[in-house]
Amino acid sequence: MKLEVTGLTVSFSIPGATVRAVTDASFSVRRGECLALVGESGCGKSVLAHALLGLLPGNARVSGQAMLSSELDLLSASPAVLAGRVRGRQIGLIPQSPATHLTPVRTARAQLEEALEELGSTRSAAELAERFGLAPRDLDRYPHELSGGMAQRVANAIALAGDPELLIADEPTSGLDRPLVERTMAVLRELCEEGRAVLVITHDLRAAAQVADRLAVMYASRLVEAGPAAELLDRPRHPYTAGLVAAQPDREFVAIAGMPPELTALPEGCAFAPRCAHVTGACARQPAMSSGVSCHHPLREAAHAQGA
Amino acid sequence: MLRAHDITAGYGRRPVLSGVSLEVPPGRTVGLGGPSGCGKSTLARVLSLMMRPTSGEVSIDGAVVSRWRQRAPRSLRTSVALLYQQPRTAVDPRMTLREIIAEPPAAAGRRSPSLVASLAGEVGLTGDLLTRRPHEVSDGQLQRACLARALTLEPRYLICDEMTTMLDASTQAHLVAVVLAYQARTGAGVLAISHDRVLLDRWADSTIAWTAQPTV
């Protein structure tokens, strides 16, 4: 099992504008591996996940390829194939907002059991729930009676009901406390060790680094840097990655000046240039992705030694 | 001093907090950490007078609170501001960001375009962004507007309930810097609620770590 994404581009037509949410994204994740896609809110990372699952709204235009196990292109597969063969069975989605993902009028147990039955699974609801740190009695609660963390754990259990080989976790840890973040990440890691492929989408660089083998950093609809997690954190080469690392509360805790461009008005050249200290005339052209970084002036080791 | 003494509060008959006491001195940042579901947000609601506790006492600079929500006297109600984790559910989707920021002074019968502009600038919102509505901006941009809104009435205490949990590190660092600058300018007390130990260690002057309350 391997997911291989090439040139994935997604745009939305809205009155008077085009939103370019994902531009030319290429990456792969194979069984036993965890890839984390890191980026801030509004950079297009959730749209990317939804494109893979065929869950985009009707005004989306998608191009590129996303081959699952070298045999099925998720981007051109029919809705029937995605619903009947892919979602829940080959790809599990751990959603971003469990509170709105769960049906408010049914208990957690009813929803988990429905998923198990629909997918023809032999596992029990209690067994799945336990794996995510839920007591059996928590399953008898309605979504509004669950804390954010508990609702997330219910959603995690539902995503695993069909025993999918690829898990896409869209902000699986937002709203969880650190121990639970760590536990969720440990569970994702475990699922990965079991031979599943895991794609984690998150704004939390620290959580990403904890679980992922590789990180891909997304900025203003494009992947700007990708590489082994530890290397990327210790020696970021794209100035945006370096800024995100420096903004961590256990580092300099300093914000990157300015804000990202609107996805309706992306510049021709490097989208980070207006916020970048290393900008030159060359940055008016879009930099190509080369040896894991998309920047005309990637930071070198020497720059890190000076604390850049 | 913003003070909670022996507070018990909850929903229905289940107490979420029992016998909780906490003090936020002016000019200080108190961190409150603890696991998801331990009652941190319930305490935030009690301290911002949004929820009446079943027992216990809240006082703001010595004034004991006896009425809650819209019945609380305006002077007390506006001296504590609350920032929520989810900016999207904390705003009226029909308003522009500028209207959202201007809402508290408008509700108090004041028009304050220059205050709104300066706070908006401080949180990094400028020009075109202020004319947008919530669905046209990112979570980070919306939370910036919510922070500016919280500061319009110059609260003496600010409660940040997981203010940056949804946000990337850079936006988090920016918003915390804005809160620190406001505090330096006005001497406000801040209660920073977060499950992120690393963040509280960096941000707060002192941190209280809760363990789970008995019901959850």
Could you name the key traits of this structure?
heterodimer, A: 308 residues, alpha/beta, Rossmann fold, 4-stranded antiparallel sheet, 11 helices, 10 strands, 30% helix, B: 216 residues, 5-stranded parallel sheet, 7 helices, 9 strands, ATP hydrolysis activity (chain A), ABC-type nickel transporter activity (chain A)
Task: Walk me through the structure.
The complex is a heterodimer of chains A (308) and B (216). Chain A is an alpha/beta fold. Chain A has a domain of 185 residues: P-loop containing nucleotide triphosphate hydrolases (Rossmann fold), CATH 3.40.50. Helix content of chain A is 30%, strand content 23%. In chain A, strands 6-7-8-3-9-10 form a 6-stranded mixed β-sheet, with helices on both faces. In chain A, strands 2-1-4-5 form a 4-stranded antiparallel β-sheet, covered by helices on one side. In chain A, helix 4 packs parallel to helix 6, helix 5 packs across helix 6 and helix 7 runs parallel beside helix 8. The longest helix of chain A has 16 residues. The radius of gyration of chain A is 20 Å and the shape is globular. The termini of chain A are far apart. Chain B has one domain: Rossmann fold (3-Layer(aba) Sandwich), CATH 3.40.50.300. Chain B is globular, with a radius of gyration of 17 Å. In chain B, strands 6-7-8-3-9 form a 5-stranded parallel β-sheet, sandwiched between helices. In chain B, helix 6 links the parallel strand 7 and strand 8. By secondary structure, chain B is α/β, with parallel strands linked by helices. At the A-B interface, helix 6, helix 7 and helix 10 of A face helix 5, helix 6 and helix 7 of B.
